Every structure is written in structure tokens, then in C-alpha cells.
Amino acid sequence: MWLNQSILNRRQVLRASIAAVAASALPGSLKGDEAGRSRAGAGAILFTPLQSVPGLPDQRYPFTLPDLPYAADALEAAIDTQTMQIHHDRHHQGYVSGLNRALEPYPDLQTRTLAELVGGWEALPDAVRTAVRNTGGGHLNHSLFWPSLSPSGGGEPSGVLDDALRIRFGTFGAFREEFSRASGSVFGSGWGWLVSGAGGRLEIVSTPNQDNPLSRGMTPLLGLDVWEHAYYLRYQNRRADYVQAFWDIVNWDEVGRRFEAL
Q: Under 8 Å CB-to-CB from 157, ≥6 apart: which residues?
């Protein structure tokens, strides 16, 4: 994505792309079925699901739990070791196992990638739809989440992603503040996201539970899990402190690679 252009040309392209998209093109939050869901019958969906997501392996059934890309105690400064172990080994494994059980009776669905299943859950048979939405979404969300963190992370992005964020939000600080606000204000359990939306426009959205922006035609670039199991052992009800600590471990190199691969 513009890898062979100068920084000046990148900025010009980004400005032109952003200017071409109306400010009201996308909502700032996705609230379950009411957020743009429209069926013309039991299988109709709004968007053609993406076949792949940058940074996400094209897994198919039977799905497996990915290893953490670092030791469980590597992020101790921000997320304690016990939380990482429980979150990865039990919660994420639970989503993987649940998804495999749900798909076992459906050989025609077993050939689809994780992105295809999650992005198109609304078109699935009634008997499997909710399970794929919840467990498939949980598997996909966490498969993107772990590599988005790094013990050497934090700071600010560089390169094309940095240009895009500053053009879209004005400053990195303004982006960070808006992302933190969206993540912190999720009611109950859910996620805050930086996504690429219509026309490549960067947006900050939130989703409930384990929903993923894929099912609304947006490509996830960075997600923050704000389910209580992601932070409660250390932060209890202080979600804002957890969100603040998140910025010290964001793997901007990984997020930048996802953006450039669009």
C-alpha cells in the first residue's frame, strides 16, 4: 500500500482518499443487530465477507489455538501473568473448542476460512449462526489481539500508518484519546477497534461481546479486549487504568504491517 512512494506522495494519496469519503459514512459504534443489520429474508447480509484479514492466518476447520508470540509473563508491566494464562489458555481455547463443535455437523462450512465465517455469520443456518458469531468471533478477535501486543511495544507508530492517523485524526494524541474513550465506554463486554472502512477511511468503532467489524464490511487493524476477564485480576473495576496501560504494549509494527497490506 503505497510502499514505493515518498512520504509526501503517501500523504497526498491519503488526503485524497479521506476527502473522498463523507464524514457520515460510518457510525462510531456498532450495537449488535440494530447497527445496520438488514435482512431481506433469513440469509441476506449487508456486505460480502472478506476472504482474509491482514495478519490473520487463513485457518479452516478444525481450528487450533495459536501460541502466544511471547512468554505469558512478558507483558507483566501492563497485564499480569495469571491473567494472560487464563485469558489465552482457557478463554481463547474455549472459543476454539466451541467453534469446532458448532461446525462438526456442517462439512460444507468447514472449508470456509475463519474470516469468511465470522464476516458472514448472518447468512449461516439458524442452528449454527449464534455459535459462529460468538465462538468464531472470539477466536478471530483474540487471534488478532495477541500479536497486537509486544513487550517492546508502546510509543507511536511510524511510516504510512503514522501519516494516515495524523491526517485522519489530526494528531496521534487525538486518535489515542478517541480510541480510549470508545473502548472505555463499551457497556458490559466488548471491544474497541481501529478499522479501515469505506474507501479506506480509518475509523474507531466498538462492538459488543465477540462481534467483529468484519461483519459490517470493515477491516480490523487494532482491537482492545475490554471484557472483564482481560483485566479484572489486576485492575478490578478500573477499566480506564487498563486502557491506559494498553498503550505501553501496542505492537505498532504489526498494526502497520496490517495497514500496509490492505
A: 165, 172, 252, 255, 256
pLDDT in tens, 153-167: 999 999 999 999 999
Closest CA to 176 of 191, 187, 196, 192: 192
DSSP 8-state code for residue 121: G
Q: Quick check: helix, strand or coil at residue 190?
A: strand
Average pLDDT rounded to a whole number, residues 9-17: 48
The CATH number given to 7-18+26-30+153-260 is 3.55.40.20
Q: Report residue 52's pLDDT band, with 50, 70 and 90 as the boundaries.
A: confident
Backbone angles phi, psi at 208, to 5 degrees: -85, 155
Rounded Cα gap, residues 246 and 237, in angstroms: 16
Helix pair angle (159-169, 7-19), 10° resolution:
40
Q: Cell 489481539 maps to which residue?
A: 145
Whole-number Å distance between alpha carbons of 71 and 143: 16
Nearest to 11 by CA among 123, 144, 168: 168
Helix H or strand E encompassing 162: helix 159-169
Q: Which amino acid is at 1?
A: M
Which residues are registered as beta bridge partners of 205?
193
Cell 488526503 belongs to: 15
Looking at residue 2, what is its pLDDT?
A: 37
Amino acid at 171: T
pTM recorded for the entire structure: 0.84
In which element (H, E) is residue 203 found? Answer: strand 202-208
- All cell numbers assigned to 218: 470493515
